């Protein structure tokens, strides 16, 4: 299959590196015009140049309402009305309920929860007349207990609940907007490698992983493949779903 999102206009947050970068590259390869957003301007512009004329980069703090207004305006001016929004940008913070400070809690929630709320709010506003898809990046931390990720787990739980609310609201209003959440167990990115012991030494390619059935760290490309499916018309009846990408880790109940 090819050109699975031909003609679609997609916004991808956190697109300068990691999963967001892979999302943007794959959506572009499959026919979408892509608006990349991130705080890292140098890397973001580099990804946009790699894609070519069908991509632009917009500097963006996802927790800023004015920032979202600018992204939507830039998208409209360059390509037209967006039909896909991938809320991907986030921060990961270690800390139990005893270790986490209020300042740390508020920073994580501002980005991971407030930022996704604003994305959904402005995404729905832009898409309600013509329809579209919202993909929210959550985590298995939203589904199970992860004691060392207090604020992060709470923020990703908010993303999962927000997703269900948006999906229900859009259906009730008759908007042709689907909203789903993606829940990885762990992704090999620079962010996780910096925080999780041993992640930097984990196999970085499918070949290196060698089909290991116990492997729990997926690759950015694995997530991008799922995002592509959700962004495409192939998933037209998938709405309000929580899709785990965790190699059965969650159902095994193993920390």
Automatic annotation (TrEMBL):
Segments traversing the membrane: none
Pfam families membership: adh_short_C2 (PF13561)
InterPro entries xrefs: NAD(P)-bd_dom_sf (IPR036291), Sc_DH/Rdtase_CS (IPR020904), SDR_fam (IPR002347)
Domain of life, per lineage: Bacteria
GO MF term (any one): oxidoreductase activity
Keywords: Oxidoreductase
PROSITE patterns: ADH_SHORT
Family from the record: Belongs to the short-chain dehydrogenases/reductases (SDR) family.
PANTHER family membership: DEHYDROGENASES, SHORT CHAIN, OXIDOREDUCTASE UCPA
UniProt-recorded name of the protein: Short-chain dehydrogenase/reductase SDR
Species per Swiss-Prot/TrEMBL record: Cupriavidus basilensis
